[in-house]
User: Fold this.
Amino acid sequence: MLPGAEFGKLPLMTARIPINVLAINVLTCMALVPNVAAGDQDWIFDLQPDKVLPSASPAAEAAPASLVQHGIPVSRRSVEAWRHQEEWLTERLAARDLRLGEPVHIRIFKQSRELELYLRGESGFELYRVFPVCEMSGTLGPKQFEGDLQAPEGFYDIRPERLHPNSDFHLAFNLGFPNTHDRSVQHTGSNIMIHGGCASNGCFAMTDYYMEQLWLFAEAALRNGQSSIGVEIYPFRMTDENLAAHSASRWIDFWHSLKPAHDHFLETGFPAMIASSDGRYVLADDSGQAADSAGPELAAEVEKPATVVPSAP
Assistant:
């Protein structure tokens, strides 16, 4: 690791570098990360320049070994994930009076590279654990266009048809980018995933081991009746201190629009209903518009499932 480097952050190095090397590095960074504002340039996530990544598109993931059972795509690989992980996860969950098949909610924080997985408990969603995000690319800020190598920020969901058990990246969930808000501000892109393989050109890449665990939680919840799994993606934890520290960023107004949903979840234990209004995210109650749900389980009166998902197809 370079001196002064932090996990997920590239140091800005200006000393003892030959001029010709520095010029090449600057030109390379400019090509890979266009239009980076001064307030954002110290949070440039590393890429994988020596690895050519295969397509993560659903078309590329189709394989004869896959099939659909009860609306859930499965494959030999996803069945193996159950064999690898089910017993251990079941025991760990039982110790906390939780179980596979409970509704799931996910929150991702880009700056700290953390994925939080929540399970529905007696009084709301309870944090099960924080998974490390193995790799991502781009800077803090939303995804704007196809090929910008950015991971998005905002509110997305995982539906049964968005599970890809034959992904080139082990296993994958499509997040449904662009959502209604992205389209309203002409943001473009496709095939943004949470996937395994620990390599990313715009997705959230996990290790295969952790991706198998996420797969079990998602498949079990969807099989057990959850229609979609909410995914909230933030640049950092939306505290007043963090927003003040990034006040020079060109994205500060956008980030302020994410904060009400962030705080609602912390205060209530349930995701907020989200809408898009005038190019900003707003709570649905404040907009009068149809909402992009941050998760179907966000109404407090939804009951816990009465049955447990079968362990594997």
Remarks:
- The chain is about 25% helix and 20% strand.
- The longest strand covers residues 124-132.
